[in-house]
Specification:
The protein has about 190 residues and is mainly α. The chain has eight helices and two strands.
């Protein structure tokens, strides 16, 4: 997904104080980090603030970055932990998902081409996704983190283990438990997905 070699060259330039290198890292990772923060918090304003805080923290800790690891894994670990800390501190209230949210968190009307599925099929799928998102939003932070990294960011178990600094078996167990918990929560609400 990310070019480890290119990242390493850019990080070395950052450590020398080259402002262009900082801008390159920000440009390369701003979207994915914001996306992770938004999925964790379900709030655009919080996600923007958290993403900014993550980059401030990362640039302040660059001298501690161990070059034998992927920068992207280190960055996502910091971002995930920062979001988990935020959720624990604030016990966030989650927003209703009545609309489809764009990258900036603003709701927009879903426009479908006329050759697509029937409106009732689209509505059913949308409601199923909404129910799933509501349940994921209520997961404990450590289950939410592994679920989003696996299914939203499409990371391997090994990448998740590296990002969260957990043993591979723990990651697999948490993902399994999170899936079971999601199924249980959906069943308790009489949701069919």
């Amino acid at each position: 997904m990310f070019d480890r070699h290119q990242d390493l060259k850019t990080i070395r330039r950052c450590k020398r104080g080259e402002e262009e290198a900082f801008a390159e890292i920000l440009q390369r990772y701003r979207g994915p980090i914001y996306s992770l923060c938004f999925r964790m918090t379900r709030n655009a304003e919080d996600a923007r603030d958290l993403a900014q805080e993550v980059f401030i923290k990362v640039f302040g800790l660059l001298d501690r970055f161990d070059e034998k690891y992927a920068f992207s894994s280190w960055l996502f670990r910091i971002a995930t932990n920062h979001c988990i800390d935020h959720l624990r501190r604030n016990r966030l209230r989650f927003l209703s998902l009545d609309g489809v949210a764009g990258k900036d968190g603003e709701e927009y009307e879903l426009q479908l081409p006329h050759k697509g599925p029937a409106p009732d099929t689209v509505l059913e799928r949308r409601q199923a996704v909404q129910r799933l998102q509501e349940v994921i939003a209520e997961l404990p932070p450590h289950y939410k983190a592994v679920t989003l990294l696996r299914h939203d960011r499409h990371l391997s178990y090994e990448e998740i283990a590296e990002i969260l600094d957990l043993p591979l078996g723990t990651v697999k167990a948490r993902i399994h438990r999170a899936r079971n918990l999601i199924q249980q929560m959906l069943k308790e609400r009489s949701y069919d997905i």
